[in-house]
Design goal:
The structure is a single chain. By secondary structure, this protein is α+β, with helices and mostly antiparallel strands. Helix content is 40%, strand content 10%. It has two domains: 12-175 and 333-380, D-Maltodextrin-Binding Protein, domain 2; 178-328 and 407-449, Periplasmic binding protein-like II (D-Maltodextrin-Binding Protein, domain 2, 3-Layer(aba) Sandwich). Helix 15 (413-428) packs antiparallel against helix 16 (434-449).
């Protein structure tokens, strides 16, 4: 921070190398757990007071800006920064990025170590943890009529995203929804029907088994939705639960999880879902991209990258349901926040407002980080890309059946997601029974909350 000479371009060659790997939202990298552990201890003893809240008269504020992604995203964000700086000559942006997996360690070290960025991207799974330790500024101070950030444009389904205990600690920078990405050609050849909201889960189980039979065991009908938090969350929402409550506690019981994992085990016996070994051998991109499965429940904005790696254009449809509820909701694909320690809250807020509301940002980014989060930016992304059209069309189809953003994960929620994946993996290998898995997971929940 401070009035250093501007260095606004992200140093692409120094920070990352091109890669076709997809940065999945459900990484099991051990560094992420270590980073959170360091945060929980260090942040409690690290001062986060900020000092002066605005740049001195006639001076130039340089904002440090952290985000995750690959070179293609960094190049687009560089273009956004150029536009912003032309309109704000007294604010310079010094941006830095890394891939998703190392990002959490980088940003928690900076936040808890006394050298935070002024503006940063935050995943929804980390938001409550950061807020609990007062590492993020309350943007409510700079939001509203006549203030730096116009929050009235945020689409209704995302209005609560970024609120923790009535504090506005982040704003959605994009929105996504879960969809079933599937190889329509393979499903048709196998005589298997993709699901919709009129399809029961048992009926979908039968259809996925047809894929395994048609491919002579080479591909499952779908990646395993029991081995990642998205599948659990979607199931719980279909059954009237939420993954997390407003107070940051788990929103479902051991019996709820036992019912779901028991269903997954019955599904596994049919061969319709990917095995634990197929998932392990397909990392980091996943079975659907390496043609070990014909479908996957995933955030809809990833359909282009998944299709590219698979080599076959995928389609989008809704999950099946037994309850009439879709289990879908508007998720902030990522949030943008200001550090509590920034001495430039007003300037950081101006940049945040630009990123969520300026139509030129939507033109530049397209759907690289997801669909537009505000009415200001809706409908701006070019429809030339067929996957943009596909994602946009899917979002419109589910508008009436998707729920608003549910409460943010509890403190340590990200590590619990990783723990759930690993426990489910052991069930898949036969190393744990469903009952043992449920007991271990809820023991871990108690430990994380203590």
């Amino acid at each position: 921070m401070g009035n250093d000479a501007p260095s606004r371009k992200v140093a692409l060659a120094r920070n990352a190398a091109p890669s076709r790997s997809i940065a999945p939202s459900r990484s099991t990298a051990p560094s992420r757990r270590a980073a959170l552990a360091a945060l929980l201890s260090a942040a409690l003893v690290t001062g986060c007071s900020g000092g002066a809240r605005s740049v001195a008269s006639g001076g130039t504020a340089t904002l440090r800006y952290f985000f995750w992604g690959e070179i293609s995203r960094a190049e687009l964000i560089n273009q956004c920064i150029d536009v912003f700086e032309r309109g704000h000559p007294k604010i310079r942006i010094k941006a830095s990025f890394v891939g998703f997996d190392p990002y959490l360690q980088k940003v928690t070290t900076a936040l808890a170590g006394g050298n935070p960025p002024d503006v940063l991207h935050v995943d929804y799974a980390w938001l409550r943890t950061f807020a609990h330790h007062d590492l993020l500024a309350d943007l409510g101070e700079v939001s509203g009529p006549g203030k730096e950030i116009d929050v009235g444009t945020v689409v209704p389904a995302l209005r609560t995203a970024g609120l923790i205990e009535d504090r506005r600690v982040g704003l959605p920078l994009s929105r996504n929804s879960i969809g079933l990405m599937y190889d329509a050609g393979l499903y048709a050849k196998a005589g298997a029907a993709p699901p919709d909201l009129n399809t029961s889960w048992d009926a979908f189980v039968e259809e996925t088994a047809k894929i395994r039979k048609f491919t002579k065991g080479a591909q499952a009908g779908v990646d395993n939705p029991g081995q990642n938090y998205m599948g659990v969350e979607m199931w719980m929402m279909q059954h009237g639960r939420t993954a997390w409550t407003e107070s940051g506690q788990l929103g479902y019981t051991p019996d709820d999880l036992r019912e779901y994992l028991t269903f997954i085990e019955r599904w596994r016996e049919t061969g319709g879902i990917a095995s634990a070994r197929e998932i392990l051998e397909s990392k980091p991109n996943g079975p659907v991209t390496l043609r070990r499965a014909a479908a996957v429940f995933e955030w809809d904005n990833q359909i282009g990258s998944r299709s590219e790696v698979r080599g076959t254009p995928l389609k989008l449809t809704t999950p099946p349901t037994d309850t009439g509820r879709s289990g879908l909701y508007a998720k902030p694909g990522m949030l943008i926040s200001a550090a509590a320690a920034t001495p430039y809250l007003s300037e950081a807020a101006q940049f945040i407002n630009f990123m969520i509301n300026d139509r030129r940002v939507a033109q530049i980014l397209g759907t690289n980080i997801g669909m537009a989060p505000t009415t200001s930016q809706q409908g701006v992304a070019s429809m030339d890309d067929p996957f943009v059209r596909l994602t946009s069309g899917y979002e419109k189809r589910i508008e009436d059946v998707a729920a608003p953003t549910p409460p943010a994960p509890g403190i340590g929620g990200n590590t619990l997601n990783v723990r759930l994946e690993r426990i489910a993996e052991k069930v898949g290998y036969g190393a744990l029974s469903v009952d043992e898995a449920v007991e271990q997971y809820f023991d871990q929940v108690k430990f994380a909350a203590s």
